[in-house]
Structure prediction request, 234 residues.
Amino acid sequence: MDKETKKSPLISLEHISKSFAEGNVIYQVLKSVNAEISEGECIALLGRSGSGKSTLLNLISGIDKPDSGRIVIGGVDITALSEHRRTLFRRKNIGFVYQFFNLIPTLTVLENVLLPLELNGKNDRSRALELLDEVSLLDRKGDYPDRLSGGEQQRVAIIRALVHDPIIILADEPTGNIDKETGHNILDIMEKFIRKRGKNLILVTHSKEVAKFADRMLLLEEGVLKKQSREIVW
Ligand SMILES: Nc1ncnc2c1ncn2[C@@H]1O[C@H](COP(=O)(O)OP(=O)(O)OP(=O)(O)O)[C@@H](O)[C@H]1O
Ligand SMILES: [Mg+2]
Prediction:
């Protein structure tokens, strides 16, 4: 394919390095990480505890900055943006799903779902209600998160991650804190929502079964990102 017709990747990680200092010791968590992710791709990110998976998600979302290297998303070099612009970029383009749901306890279910819209200066209540209906939680809209089960909270968190129509969903062990069966249900919902809308997903998981749901697996090993073949037996 010649240069003109080659489609550029949606996310491009170019020689990303990141270290953390602990006292006098500096730990290099990510070592010149390179990856290209195409539009609509679902990626499973694997690696041992402490291998830097969450650190990498924080860099892709622009919460943190790499020490060196570039992260280009949809043609925008987010590493070159000011912190304020990076925050605006994140609010608009990224949705998050966390292991511990991270719903705001003092807001109702509906208010939690509306939050990403409000941060973008929108108040599309009907869209929030429609999504709540899609995950069968419309009748819980006035409840506070602590009245919901873990699986229900995660369903709210999934639609909160999608309500503002971001281009990328980052999910950090989204089924890590719920039972297996509910976890499957959560993954089915995520898959349905994300594939239907052609969104990108980067899913951190320790589970081989969960990783199967992705188009491609990437493995972090001692700070180096490697392609993981599906054939490898774990
Ligand atoms: N803000 C920070 N300050 C200092 N060290 C950090 C910071 N964030 C991460 N680290 C260190 O970087 C390494 C990678 O952490 P990270 O949370 O990215 O791992 P992980 O792969 O997500 O692990 P887990 O599977 O347990 O969630 C760890 O050694 C961690 O202690
Ligand atoms: Mg982590």
